[in-house]
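Researcher: If only I could read backbone structure tokens as easily as an amino acid sequence. Walk me, if you will, through where the backbone shape changes along the chain. I have put the entry right below:
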Amino acid sequence: MNDPDLSALAMAAFDQMVAATPEFRARPGQREMAQRIASSLHSVTLGDQDKPQSAVTVIQAGTGVGKSAAYLSTTVALALARKTRVVVSTATVALQEQLMTKDLPALAAVLDTPFVYALAKGRGRYVCKLKLERLVGHVGEDATELFDGDDEASATSQTSATQPTRGAVWQDPLERRVALYDTLASALAAGKWDGDRDNLAEQPEARDWSTVAAERHTCTARHCPRFSSCSYYQARMQLAQAQVIVANHDLVLASLGMKALPDLNNCLVVFDEGHHLPAVALDQFSSAMDLTGLRWLDKLPKILIDVADNMGFVQVQDVTTLAQQLKTALLEAGRLALELVRGLSAGYDTVYRFRDGIVPEAMLEPFKLIHGHASALSDALEALGAELKARAKEDTAQAANCSVQYARLGQMAPKLNSVVATSAQWLCSDEPPLAKWLKSDTSSGLVSISAHACPIVPGDLLRRHLWQQVRGAVVTSASLTTCGSFDFFLGETGLAGLPQVSTLAVESPFDYRSQGQLIVADTAADPKQVDLYTTQMVAALLLDLREVAHGALVLFTSRVQMQAAVSALDASLLELVLVQGQMARGRLLGIHQARVESGRASVIFGLQSFGEGLDLPGLLCETVFIAKLPFSPPSDPVEEARAEWLKRAGRDPFSELVVPATGIKLLQWTGRAIRSETDQARVICYDKRLLSMAYGRRMLQGLPPYAVSRRVHGALSAL
């Protein structure tokens, strides 16, 4: 469908929305963004087409542009006119809440055509009624079987049994969990709860919830006797009625080809907070398996045999022998892994990465056996599961029993799938190589060893799995350019060189030069002299903190660095400072706001997660202090593997990857300062490399146009 009138229709919707906005200020950048979306997406072809026309418009919208109003009004109007839908994907819960409670209701109130919007969540956010009923009705062996029986769970239960619960009441962990499930079942039956975990007044522990959570592997869908009242599928039905679906990047990528969301070739898509896409892609396509917690393998053949006997199904495979062979191979891999880790350091909490993704042949041998045995067991499990589904479909009288048996199989599937996927990736010798590493951990009191694998080029993954499906998309964020260019982001997301891609940088309406100031404070020590630099930086920071009149934010690059600053605070400064991690984020921000509004000074100490998405307008944040340029720690195995690969190809990973990635973080961190047209704020960075090094000046080019000064021995000089 190629109708230029659709573009005008989308802009008319945008005009309706801004006209209805209280105290609206004209923002040329917002209109420019809306116009680009309308002109780019109005002519894309949706559905099955021989030669479809696609468009992906990448828009950096500076703070204060009002990007959600620009993309919602235009994409929703286009979708309604074309009788299709919009999927809006975010990276944070905060933005989802803003869209659902503020932006979408505002748009629905002004558009002439009514529309329905809904929030999409992963299946695991909902309770499985069949699992819950089974636990409530059969506490004994059934409950024990469904409660994770691996080593980690056992260790956790033992720990829980020796700890007092709230109110200093000692309670057996099994009794506690049974009481929880009784409460949940009663609330469901009374209609006081809808089965959505997020709607519980008090969130259950992750392990307790996972036992009753809905899962793809344990679900027979419409063949389940509880399908008509299933919380997850009722939510899916609401999604089916919605023209606008709010989701997150993890769910969108995990749902590709799964029908949980609309087909991406038949709807419009918005990726807000799009700078997170590369990291989410790597996470989605990584794998890991435990080499030490193997008690689940003792349970697996018993469950397979019991389910097969229950259904009168003849197993082709000798699952008992296969499980024993798999356990033997995993134990051998764990033994070899432990030797490698022990040779690396004196302790056991460490990471051992294989250079260039090359695993020694001695280590690969058990992985070949692992993959073969695990694949055979997986085939047996899938064959039994397929038989259960078929019988549930053919004979409704057997449906309930089939669903229960299928759930028993399903609890084993994720662990088995992880072993199959991880061993396959370890045996892979593709180019570029995968990052492969071992991780040892003693937090449970025992040494646990796990094997990990991950692709190292997110752009390849996104191009192959996402962009080949998408027809019309907006990718937006306040931080998509770095060092003044989109090149890094386009490469990381697999959009570089694609003919359907266009870019636009929309400037913030804020006057950064008059509203803000960026001060680079020199320290005598080079930041590479970590201990000396930290000592000098903290001394300068403490002097500056004494000048804080209202609200301020200090961003650190490591917990060790932050703790050094906390330890140096005297009594008077301790009264001002709130430290990330000392309390829940919401409570910390509430205390900060109350202090500032009462006329007192308040300072927040935070790490990376406080450098993005934190909105502290006006007096709440008059100064942002940056302890050091936010380079990623050099120990990340995926980043190490990628840098190694680039060096082998004669490329410079520092210039090509590290500097641009740090530039994006710095843009986010400095973005905490000016949040409205009336804000007046400073950014003080203690890392002189921002001015003294060529790469620092590259990063500076990508920052808002603050008035820049250098501070040496307390004296300021404008640049």
